[in-house]
């Protein structure tokens, strides 16, 4: 059963415009959320995260929004650049204190930024 | 410092053979995770280690899959009597208490093809 869902497998955006990637989750115990970016033939790399005590976290061109009541988060990239073209994974965790977290990943959204 | 490394990068095997995949985590990272990504799927959690012990083996798809970690460092994932549905990219990640285990660092993956 997929606890983290990314319902859009792909997204195309014009360079300079905003990219919005969406993610939904089902487990209300999740309290930490992350976005990873993955280029072909490479492992995912951490992009940005947000704790459930916040509803927004911003890092340069990347902003993550969290709506806990809707169990929804989104990643905004503005302005989008061709180098942002990659697969973006949403992940969530419900930590077990001091023993490490298990992360649940979505299926990914492939973003293409058109020059 | 070196990141997470995995070997081999590619493995082609015949159905029924056993394979071993290796992961070298970042030095000092006590938590280690194995995931796999099948074609068109998200990252599927397999197992995680805290030190040498595996508190959570819930993701292992069958008893043909096993993993061990020795010395709190290198881990091997073994798949016995491989089947074609085992074909996937197997990703390893590690994390540290210093970041509250909230950020995982991924290796480049091992692409396994079972003929």
What does it look like?
With 115 residues, chain A is mainly beta. In chain A, 0% of the residues lie in helices and 53% in strands. Chain A has no helices and eleven strands. In chain A, the strands form two sheets. In chain A, strands 2, 4, 5, 9, 10 and 11 form a six-stranded mixed β-sheet that branches. In chain A, strands 1-3-8-7-6 form a five-stranded antiparallel β-sheet, with no helix packed on it. In chain A, a hairpin with a 6-residue loop joins strand 4 and strand 5. The model of chain A has no long low-confidence stretch (mean pLDDT 92). In chain B, 0% of the residues lie in helices and 50% in strands. Chain B is mainly β and 115 residues long. In chain B, a hairpin with a 2-residue loop joins strand 5 and strand 6 (53-56). In chain B, strands 2, 4, 5, 6, 9, 10 and 11 form a seven-stranded mixed β-sheet that branches. In chain B, strands 1-3-8-7 form a four-stranded antiparallel β-sheet, with no helix packed on it. Chain B has no helices and eleven strands. Chain B is globular. Chain A binds chain B through residues 2, 4, 6, 32, 34, 36, 41-46, 49, 89, 91, 93, 95-96, 98-108, and chain B through 4, 30-31, 33, 35, 40-45, 48, 50, 55-56, 91, 93, 95, 97, 100-109.
Q: What coarse outline of chain B follows from CA principal-axis ratios? A: globular
Alpha carbon gyration radius of chain A: 14 Å
The greatest inter-chain interface is formed by: A-B, 29 and 29 residues
What structural category do the secondary elements of chain A indicate?
mainly beta
Annotation field: number of helices of chain A:
0
List keywords for this structure.
heterodimer; A: 115 residues; mainly beta; six-stranded mixed sheet; five-stranded antiparallel sheet; 53% strand; globular; B: 115 residues; seven-stranded mixed sheet; four-stranded antiparallel sheet; 11 strands; 0% helix
């Amino acid at each position: 059963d997929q606890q983290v869902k990314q319902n859009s497998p792909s997204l195309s955006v014009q360079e300079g415009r905003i990219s919005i990637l969406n993610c939904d989750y089902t487990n209300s115990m999740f309290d930490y959320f992350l976005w990873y970016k993955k280029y072909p033939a490479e492992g995912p790399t951490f992009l940005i995260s947000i704790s459930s005590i916040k509803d927004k976290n911003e890092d340069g061109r990347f902003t993550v929004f969290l709506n806990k009541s809707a169990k929804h988060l989104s990643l905004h990239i503005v302005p989008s650049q061709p180098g942002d073209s990659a697969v973006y994974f949403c992940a969530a965790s419900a930590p077990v204190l001091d023993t490490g977290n298990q992360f649940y990943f979505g299926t990914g959204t492939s973003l293409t930024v058109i020059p | 410092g070196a990141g997470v490394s995995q070997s081999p990068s590619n493995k082609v095997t015949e159905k029924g053979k056993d394979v071993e995949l290796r992961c070298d985590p970042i030095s000092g990272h006590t938590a280690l995770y194995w995931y796999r990504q099948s074609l068109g799927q998200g990252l599927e959690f397999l197992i995680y280690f805290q030190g040498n012990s595996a508190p959570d083996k819930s993701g292992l798809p069958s008893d043909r899959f096993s993993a061990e970690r020795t010395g709190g460092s290198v881990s091997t994932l073994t798949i016995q009597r491989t089947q074609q549905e085992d074909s996937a990219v197997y990703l390893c990640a590690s994390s540290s208490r210093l970041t509250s285990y909230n950020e995982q660092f991924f290796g480049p993956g091992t692409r396994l093809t079972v003929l």
